[in-house]
Amino acid sequence: MEAADSPARRSLRQPCVKIGAVVLAAGSSSRLGESKQLLQHEGRPLVRRIAETAIAAGCDPVAVVVGAGREKVAATLHDLAVTIVPNDAWERGLGTSLRAGVAQLRDSDALLLLVCDQPFVSVDLLRQLIAAQQKTQKPMAASAYGGTIGVPALFTRACFAQLLSLGEEEGAKTLLTSRPDEVAPVDFPSGAIDIDTPADFEALQREHGASA
């Protein structure tokens, strides 16, 4: 049991001044049949859009974890201030990409975990997550949608060891849902909209004016 004023507890009370972002973009999009990272929304590939959003929100550094189709994905980001993190083990599960990204940003005070197939993630949402963590001083802040919590989510340094210990097929939601009292929720109803299938992308184009 930690002492009342242990170093770990004191670190949670200190403001996060160096906040990085990890963009998980290594999957093969097997259900979609093509790379979701490269799908165009608002005139930009989804992976570029989320990377630019993280940068605009003040995240530094921004790490993009790539695996399947890594050359094409990296090429869409060539002029951005991001670090490309190759994950040769991406086929073994999401957890391998999560661990690669966290390891790259281990010197940050906190990190935002992002995926590229949530087309309505905004700069304002990311800043709300940062503000929620700083206001509550909880070790995590997460988006709330569809009766659950998930990404985008912010994790302070106190969570890095747990993230690095997740199994190969586990995502960050495992940590969020196992410690709900330590999570500051931020409402993000549009977080329930993601792109997994051709029908999902067709609906995005039809209902939200995405450009092909």
Q: Would you mind describing this structure in some detail?
A:
This protein has 212 residues and is of the alpha/beta class. 33% of the residues lie in helices and 22% in strands. The protein has helices at residues 7-13, 46-56, 70-75, 94-104, 123-136, 160-164, 173-178, 198-208; strands at residues 19-25, 40-41, 44-45, 62-66, 83-86, 110-115, 140-145, 148-156, 183-187. A hairpin with a 2-residue loop joins β7 and β8. The model is unreliable at 1-13 (pLDDT under 50).
Oligomer: single chain
Distance between the termini: 54 Å
Which overall shape is indicated by the principal axes computed on the Cα atoms?
A: globular
Structural class based on helices, strands and sheet pairing: alpha/beta
Major sheet description: 7 strands, mixed
Strand content: 15-25%
Query: Over the alpha carbons, how many angstroms does the gyration radius reach?
Result: 17 Å
Count of β-strands: 9
Mean pLDDT: 88
User: Which spans have pLDDT < 50 for at least 5 consecutive residues?
Assistant: 1-13
Order of helices and strands: HEEEHEHEHEHEEHHEH
- Total DSSP helices: 8
Q: Order of strands in the sheet with the most strands?
A: 5-4-1-6-8-7-9
- Helix coverage percent: 25-40%
